[in-house]
Design a protein that fits this description.
mainly alpha
């Protein structure tokens, strides 16, 4: 059964813009959050920032999308 409380997609996105992976943790996606927390800094350092920006924005987008998916699951169950 999906979570009882809907997630705020905008908040998830903003959290991941502040710290990549934080929005995933807000969505209770521990492994996804850890992935972005590890990969994004590696991309920033490894490419001098070029791919770091891409990872940073992908993290925010995926947090937003996942929060919307969670909300749809909650609606289906109610």
């Amino acid at each position: 059964m999906p979570e009882e409380y809907p997630q705020n997609p905008t908040l998830a996105c903003v959290l991941s813009l502040l710290v990549p992976g934080l929005g995933q943790l807000y969505n209770r996606d521990l492994l996804r959050g850890l992935f972005w927390l590890i990969i994004t800094p590696g991309c920033w350092i490894g490419t001098g920032g070029t791919i770091g920006w891409i990872c940073h924005f992908l993290s925010a987008y995926t947090a937003y999308r996942r929060a919307k998916e969670i909300n749809q699951e909650v609606e289906r169950w109610h």
